[in-house]
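Course exercise 7: structure representation. Students receive a sequence record and must write out the corresponding structure in token form. The form below is the worked example handed out in class, using DUF2508 domain-containing protein (87 residues). Read each field label carefully; the graders check that inputs and outputs are placed in the correct fields and that the protein name is recorded exactly as given.

STUDENT ID: A-19
EXERCISE PROTEIN: DUF2508 domain-containing protein
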Amino acid sequence: MDRRLILDVVFEKIQYTNEQKEIMYAIEDAKEEWDSANSMFQLVKDPQLIDYAIHKENAAKSKYLFYLAKAKELGICMNLGYTIEKG
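STUDENT ANSWER:
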């Protein structure tokens, strides 16, 4: 199931500000980027592509951690199972 659809359902049940919603969507997008970069790293064989995959994975990880920190500042709690609760 698309995780964005899950967020949409949660947003219907719990009132979040637009800023909180944007942060949660950004976290989902960054997580998908990180997963994609990790998959790429697992598949590539060429040394130059390996370097690129490492760079891409590190960038995605940094983006993900940035948005997690922003969520923490706003009091948004998301557990590893992607259950979202208002903190």
